[in-house]
Amino acid sequence: MRARYSAYESGNVQFILDTWHPDHRFEEDIDDIREFANSNEWLELRVLKTQGMPRHATGMQASVEFVAFFRQKGQQGFNQHHEKSTFRFLEGHWYFVEGKPMPPIKLNRNDSCPCGSGKKYKICCGC
Fold first, then answer.
1. What digits encode the pLDDT tens for the residues 48-66?
2. Cα separation of 26 and 65, whole Å?
3. What range(s) does the YchJ-like middle NTF2-like domain occupy (predicted)?
4. DSSP code per residue over 48-82
């Protein structure tokens, strides 16, 4: 999951496609993925919860709940993508199956602001 985030961050669209489960992969999505990855600045990944992630379990399914903070290039502030992703272990590798969008998480006032300013959220984007 972290590797897929890094692929979005670096614009490595081929890795994103290669780690998509073959039964759920759509080659025609490649342009949309490339546009989404390259039009945003990726700020932070927070993994909130994992479930059923043994190291080697052929046919096993697992889920990861995460929030990816990003902003459109040239913009201020940030957006968040909160998702519960399902992965399936197949032939020695974990593959992304699907993602269920979740509502945005509430940030605490004293957290560091995900925009990358280094300031507390309450005196930056949370004011």
1. 999 886 665 556 889 999 9
2. 23
3. 1-99
4. EEEES--SS-TT-EEEEEEEEEEEETT-SS-EEEE
Q: pLDDT (tens digit, 9 = 90+) per residue, 87-126?
A: 998 888 899 999 999 999 999 989 999 988 889 999 988 7
Of the candidates 93, 100, 101, the residue with the CA atom closest to the CA atom of residue 21: 93
Model's pTM, two decimal places? Answer: 0.86
Q: How far is CA 117 from CA 32, 46, 114, in A?
A: 29, 17, 8
DSSP 8-state code for residue 121: G
How high is the pLDDT of residue 120?
92
Residues 6+ apart with CB under 8 A from 61: 52, 86, 87, 88, 89, 97
CA separation for the pair 1, 112 (Å, rounded): 23
Structure-block tokens of residue 58: 């052929």
Q: How far apart are CA 121 and CA 127, in angstroms?
A: 8
Q: Report the distance separating Cα 33 and Cα 107, nearest Å.
A: 27
